[in-house]
Amino acid sequence: MTEYRAELKKLAEKLMEVMDENLGIPKGHIKKMFNGGDEETAFFGTKVSHYPPCPHPERVTGLRSHTDAGGVILLFQDDVVGGLEILKDGKWTDVQPIPNAICINTGDQIEVLSNGRYKSVWHRVQAVPNGTRRSIASFYNPSYNATIEPASQLIQKENKEVNHFGYPKFVFGDYMSVYTEQKFLPKEPRFEAVKAVN
Q1: CA-CA distances (angstroms) from residue 99 to 10, 72, 78?
Q2: Torsions phi, psi of 81, nearest 5?
Q3: Using CA atoms in the order 49, 133, 14, 34, what is the torsion angle rounded to 10 degrees?
Q4: 4, 57, 83, 144 - which has most CB atoms within 10 Å?
């Protein structure tokens, strides 16, 4: 598991570099913001989830819809039993299990840093009647002390086009205090609440 996590952390860091390039911001910008500087203080954690079969899936949801609070999420999902859905164009869409594939999800902090160019993804897990679903999710999140805000280059370029909402500047730990109370609610009020804190 240690080697698996080390390789996933490298993959997450590579993905952030690709996002930097795609956004036209300096290489390493997202990682530096997550670390709150040049030291390695960002959080990388892994969670294993187990969803047993449910005889009446119409009565429950395996995991309610939400966006992830952090940055880059790498999900190795069950390659047989489905249930993961994302909200795309106002409709819930199945994320079909693909053997040996890793699903990549972006969280709320990537949405803020990218000034809305990348969106955090609404997702949920539906209960299923047949089969046990297992997944391994790894999260590359900012340090609790990291200051998060849209990249200045993106505000200058796109403020009128993309940042209609006006993403705030905040400390990630403050955001997490709000998120733990509002995880399953719309994300825009979370951004507003953390804006009011600062």
Answers
A1: 21, 21, 8
A2: -95, 120
A3: -30
A4: 83
Confidence at 156, pLDDT banded by 50, 70, 90: low
Characterize 155-173 residue by residue with b for buried, 16 or more Cβ atoms within 10 angstroms of its Cβ, and e for exposed. Answer: eeebeeebbeeebbebbbe
DSSP β-ladder status, 43-51 and 133-141: antiparallel
H helices present in the chain, as ranges: 2-23, 29-35, 108-113, 152-158, 172-182, 187-197
pLDDT at 162: 45
Which of these, 77, 62, 61, lies nearest to 136 by C-alpha position? 77
**Contact status, residue 18 vs residue 102, Cβ threshold 8 Å:** no
CB-based burial label for 70 (10 Å; 0-12, 13-18, 19+): buried
Q: How confident is the model at residue 143 (pLDDT cuts 50, 70, 90)?
A: very high
d(CA 46, CA 187) in angstroms, rounded, equals 23
